[in-house]
Amino acid sequence: xxxxxxxxxxxxxxxxxxxxxxxLDGRSAYDYRDIRIAFGVSLGCCHVELGKTRVLAQVSCExxxxxxxxxxxxxxxxxxxxxxxACPSFEAGRQSEEGVELSRLMERCLKESxxxxxxxxxxxxxxxxxxIRVDIHVLNHEGNILDCASIAAISALAHFRRPDVTVxxxxxxxxxxxxxxxxxxxxxxxxxxVSFTFFxxxxxxxxxxxxxxxxxxxxxxxxxxxxxxxxxxLQVTGQMLLLKEQVLRCSNIAVTKxxxxxxxxFQALENDKQARLKGEKHGFAELVSxxxxxxxxxxxxxxxxxxxxxxxxxxxxxxxxxDSEESxxxxxxxxxxxxxxxxxxxxxxxxxxxxxxxxxxxxDDDHAESKKSTKFKPELIELDGESSEEECQVVLxxx
Amino acid sequence: xxxxxxFKITQPKEYYEKFLEKDVRPDNRELGEFRxxxxxxxxxxxxxxxxxxxxxxxxxxxGIKAEVAEPASDGKKGYLVPNVELPPLCSTNFKPGPPSELxxxxxxxxxxxxxxxxxxxxxxxxxxxxxxxxxxYIDLVCLxxxxxxMDACTLALMAALRNxxxxxxxxxxxxxxxxxxxxxxxxxxxxxxxxxxxxxxFDKKILLVDPTSxxxxxxxxxxxxxxxxxxxxxxxxxxxTPLTDxxxxxxxxxxxxxxxxAERLIEELIDK
Amino acid sequence: MAAAFIVVRKEDxxxxxxxxxxxxxxxxxxxxxxxxxxxxxxxxxxxxxxxLAVSYGPAEVRINQEQYDKATVEVVYKPKVGLPRPIDRxxxxxxxxxxxxxxxTSLHPRSSISIIIQETEDLGxxxxxxxxxxxLALLDAAVHMAFMVAAVAVSVMEDGQIKLDPNKKxxxxxxxxxxxxxxxxxxKVVSVVTSGTxxxxxxxxxxxxxxxxxxxxxxxxxDSLSKKLMQSx
Lengths: 399, 272, 233
Fold this sequence. Notes:
Number of strands of chain B: 12
Domain Exoribonuclease phosphorolytic (chain C): 25-143, 148-209
Helix content of chain B: 25-40%
Number of strands of chain A: 18
GO cellular component, one term (chain C): nucleolus
Strand content of chain A: 25-35%
Pfam families (chain C): RNase_PH, RNase_PH_C
Distance between the termini of chain A: 57 Å
Order of helices and strands of chain B: HHEEEEHEEHEEEEHEEH
GO molecular function (chain C): RNA binding
Number of helices of chain B: 6
Organism (chain C): Biomphalaria glabrata (Bloodfluke planorb)
Oligomer: heterotrimer
Shape of chain B: elongated
Distance between the termini of chain B: 47 Å
Number of helices of chain A: 9
Largest sheet of chain B: 6 strands, mixed
Radius of gyration of chain A: 34 Å
Strand content of chain B: 25-35%
Helix content of chain A: 25-40%
Largest sheet of chain A: 6 strands, mixed
Order of helices and strands of chain A: HEEEEHEEHEEEEEEHEEHEEHEEHHH
């Protein structure tokens, strides 16, 4: 489906608002929308809401060969899926330009920042290593997917546990969950992406742009940073020139934002850990509260088994009488003990209904002949046709 | 063109209705009747196992190639890799290029058919535990697409598996060298014989067994039942017209009859 | 290729086990209109199994998929890990034909109705959960439907015992899993998908049990929608 373009009217209105330091949703220029971080029942599954923007990240692992150039390292693979669920203009199975940019930035943020200790993923040097895969699904596009995705990805990595492995001689044993507690990945620091959008020749700048603001922006700067104030990536796109002061100011804003968000992630991880320890209910299903009018909850319901059994008995007896006729006509043909005809060595045939271009069915089998003759001929049906002209022609044709 | 042919082309549904109200199908079959099933076992000499199935005009050839492979980490299980091809030659509906959606779904159906029925134990494909196993590549190619390819494929698959002969492989323990003795062959041990039976629903009420491709195009629903002895392996009804319990029962009964018939066909051919 | 591990702690699986005794339908939750960009959306869960489903349409259709007499129904299933595999294609095919039967496609010729389903947590009866979520998403988008559909799964255990709405553990331990889809009009069978072997007797028992459970699911649909629509009066 094609995307609905933004009207000129709306575009001008948004720009005018920004010039007056106002935003459509009432935020001030440097405000983030509300962030909600939730974890699933399976480990390494994280769901992040940034305002209405939603991203789901899932981490999984498998044993594979390490890269030849780096035989002592595990492999981290990042995949960003822009599902048509998020926005009607995204197509399933085809990576858009926007999608490519997004996956590249995520890769830079997670892989090239070396936030994860890949060496600890090695099992046997040069032969076996863990491959860690991060799948990021964009579920709802209301602007600033990038920041949301980076929060989801790093939280999921921190939440993930991989099965424990022991190596004895040549034998590699992957322990099941019951056997040994799974081990967390070793993560050095939490790099997060913060995007800044610029309007009117870089005069105005906004943090956490909404979808409409992204449509009218002139350019964008993305800073990847961790809470130790280290910059991991920096990218500027769009047709604009920035002053040194602007870049510095943005990085200062990024510092405060990253500190707050990192704190939030730690808190969410801790909450989830506590809930699991206490054996409380956790996971996505628990997020839905029954209070909103759009949400509904039906508690565990019993289905009376005895009733089901009774009904089945009733059904059984009644169905026997009612459909016996139909089922008989349906199955009678097959119920005759049919012989397997051996046509040649290794070639056999069974059944004789309908035409087949493969074999000559006009065999001298009396049985088959007699059955054929009682059957309906197609031209007889045509006699039911309405006009007499039709009849003549069909009969002629048949003869 | 004869008029009844024009009638058939312009109003295919009405054409079929005329026949079906007399409980017969345009190709002279009754509603519950299969087309003649011809089975040829061992028709491809270069394959380890092979068969050719002709179900009316529909025909499917199946070849099984065996390769030696390394097992997954836990060691004893071999691989079964079925693949269904619908090349352009079998019907005008298919174009060259990557497999169509139907071909992908059929391939997946074959995988499910093998795993659900457990007719081949994957442990039987083990040569040296943890080191070597057989990997059987099962290629099913449709040569003529005239409906009910599912049943033709499963029958061809079962017949080819029964026909499969694997050479004896020995591994020298010291040198680790693999030797294949082609003169001695071993049969694959297969204890079960699952058979599939397909139905379509015509005009939301009439059930037809073994549909031709014309009938499949007119169908408002489809149903495939796989039976194995006295058990059911799979009931697969993807959407379409809802059916009552009695209709389902009728289909299951018919499927069991077909199951016995097809089993006899394979047994008698293997015995000869 | 070795299968990817998604790790679920043992305790979590057991907690699931303890919470649910034999013949119960797990807790159902839904949140309608949870996503903003689509015409209809729902986050639906059965116990801990959760899926997100959205629907678009009737809308513009790609020219090569246009049908002159009815709407084209498209279904996209997004697995949580990796790219769609053949098994997901089959799942899409089942979903598509099930929903095609339910939607009155002849009302919107030359247009498309698309449904996108995202797996978020698979802890048993995923297929049933997908179908129920898709139906709710269509209801949320107010697409014309001939009937609603409800799916319920059962697992047949090794000893022949039948478990309604199985969780992951029961699904893995069971000898067979059967998923039935019923229509809301006459509770007839719209779809059946099974895996593993089972007897006719077990089939009969399962279908009767799931039919009863399906009525609860239909009731849940009605409750969810009436709760949402009540406010606008």
